[in-house]
């Protein structure tokens, strides 16, 4: 708001700057803005104090000309010259260096040193053939010192140069005058084996300007009666089929496999039933031939138990007699 109001309402702009300084006093640009609004109102003491604070916070010397001019405003031209000489002018930016030369020239005029004031303005930037943003102020200051020296014709010439510089800068700053379009081409090296999506995107962008590859010509359609590509000709064996002379092998289907499993289960059940029947029949058990190898102790014990049950006839004892014996 201060920058928007500084030209039309400096007092209101200063109030905005004061409000900003109360809330953010440790920010350099805030103190710089407050100093500028105070300078516009002629409060050079406040402006100088705020500019010193700005310089201490930022470490910059870009407002050194305004600080020296505040010293002039306070009636201390010697302090202004001393402050201006405290910094090497070659370390300053060109616009700042030109402004500092104008302030030093004004301080010399305050001291009555007119010739010295003219010499302060004889700097490399004082060129008649080119205009820069600082040229109008520099030309006008030089013309003013010439006028103080009574060299009116030269002064009028430099005043005219100042006006021409203003017109040239206004023409250059018109919309569209300074716009310039630059087109640059960059070659992007992409690894074709890269899996990075960004690289693939760059590759697509890089190939966007390449000529399109020719489309493959369509294959001719087969004439009626001719086999299509990939189909065997009549009389030739199908791919994957048996070679001539080899017997054909029938492949079992899922139903055949299921029938085979059912038959195997039925055979297993029949074998188990036969084994149980043999074990339950004593005669069958006695009539079984013994092997040539000696029986193991476990096998002999089971044989004794089997014979014992058959000799003593436990199966023939009734359930009632067995319960009486158990009692």
Counting DSSP H or I runs of 4 or more residues, the number of helices is 15
Structural class: mainly alpha
Please tell me how large the radius of gyration is: 57 Å
Report the biggest beta sheet as strand number plus sense, adding barrel if it closes.
none
What's the helical proportion of residues?
55-70%
Beta-strand content bin:
under 5%
Mean pLDDT: 74
Question: Which spans of ≥5 residues are poorly predicted at pLDDT below 50?
Answer: 244-254, 279-317
Please tell me what the overall shape is. Answer: extended
> Quick one: how many beta strands?
0
Distance between the termini: 118 Å
Order of helices and strands: HHHHHHHHHHHHHHH
Which terms would index this structure?
mainly alpha
Strands, helices and their partners?
Blueprint: H1 2-5, H2 10-23, H3 28-40, H4 44-58, H5 64-73, H6 77-85, H7 94-110, H8 114-120, H9 135-148, H10 152-172, H11 197-206, H12 254-280, H13 282-287, H14 297-312, H15 319-326
Helix pairs in contact: 2-3, 3-4, 4-5, 5-6, 5-7, 6-7, 7-8, 7-9, 8-9, 9-10
């Amino acid at each position: 708001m201060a920058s928007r109001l500084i030209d039309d309402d400096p007092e209101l702009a200063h109030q905005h700057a004061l409000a900003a300084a109360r809330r953010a006093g440790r920010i350099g640009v805030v103190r710089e803005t407050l100093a500028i609004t105070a300078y516009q109102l002629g409060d050079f003491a406040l402006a100088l104090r705020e500019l010193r604070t700005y310089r201490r916070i930022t470490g910059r010397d870009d407002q050194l000309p305004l600080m020296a001019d505040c010293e002039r405003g306070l009636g201390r031209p010697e302090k202004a010259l001393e402050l201006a000489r405290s910094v090497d002018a070659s370390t300053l930016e060109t616009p700042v260096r030109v402004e500092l030369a104008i302030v030093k020239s004004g301080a010399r005029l305050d001291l009555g040193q007119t010739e010295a004031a003219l010499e302060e303005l004889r700097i490399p930037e004082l060129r008649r053939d080119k205009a820069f943003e600082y040229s109008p102020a520099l030309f006008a200051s030089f013309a003013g010192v010439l006028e103080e020296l009574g060299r009116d014709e030269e002064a009028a010439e430099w005043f005219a140069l100042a006006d021409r510089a203003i017109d040239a800068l206004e023409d250059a700053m018109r919309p569209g005058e300074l716009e310039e379009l630059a087109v640059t081409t960059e070659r992007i090296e992409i690894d074709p084996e890269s899996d990075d999506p960004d690289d693939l995107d760059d590759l697509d962008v890089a190939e966007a300007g390449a000529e399109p590859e020719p489309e493959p010509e369509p294959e001719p359609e087969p004439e009626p009666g001719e086999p299509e590509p990939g189909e065997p000709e009549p009389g030739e064996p199908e791919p994957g089929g048996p070679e001539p002379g080899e017997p054909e092998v029938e492949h079992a289907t899922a139903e055949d496999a299921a029938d085979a499993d059912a038959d195997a289960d039925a055979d297993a059940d029949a074998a188990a039933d036969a084994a149980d029947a043999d074990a339950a029949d004593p005669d069958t058990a006695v009539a079984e031939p013994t092997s040539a190898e000696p029986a193991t102790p476990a096998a002999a014990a089971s044989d004794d138990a089997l014979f014992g049950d058959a000799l003593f006839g436990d199966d023939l004892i009734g359930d009632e007699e067995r319960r009486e014996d158990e009692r």
